[in-house]
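User: Can you predict the 3D structure for this chain?
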Amino acid sequence: MVASLQKFIKYCKYWLTAANGKGHGIHSPFVFKFVVDVLNDERFFYAFETIESIVNANLNNQKINKLLFRIANYYQPKSVLIIDETIGITTSYIALANTDASVYSYFSQAKNFEKVKAVVTTCNAENCHFVTSITTKKQHDLVYVDAKNAVLLNDVLQQVLPLLHPQSILIVNNINSSKKIEAQWLQLQTNSTVTLTINLFQVGLVFFRPENKIAQHFTIRF
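Assistant: Here is the predicted structure, written as structure tokens:
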């Protein structure tokens, strides 16, 4: 109860201080375009019905999953790394957003693949591959990390950041789930390679665009 109340208070502060969710008053052209073309894109994509008709999707995460789909659909990443050891719904949304992409779904143990494989196969996410190692020589255009705890998040970020290039997008889910994870998010914003972040309360987006000479951090209503 106390934790729920604290999160509600935190959300109220976020909502009162965040920039307008329609883009008004946002002076960064890149962020304004993201808000208009991605955040507020109200189209219903075929993949939504495909996934939701097959899988009993968690409605609490449906809004976030659809946003992740729109991000992958809009920016068209060719190589995607997903670090989310759940049942595969999020993986399916991202994989179906760009079927030309190679999507690598990380699991710490291979025995955990089977249930997720069944979900993504049923959703026809044929471009999804399963891996047990994060660190590879391959760079990724999009990386999604579901933050379970602060220690795990720190370890993952240490491995992921070297795999990103200037046009990569890093998405961290559950950035406000605990004080320690929130602190990790704030620490990530200070990384010398980070030039732009967008805080949507549950998820945080990180960009490394070299054209941003001075790092900018936006909090936007979503």
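The chain has a mean pLDDT of 89. Strands lie at 79-83, 102-106, 128-131, 140-146, 164-173, 196-199, 203-207, 216-219.
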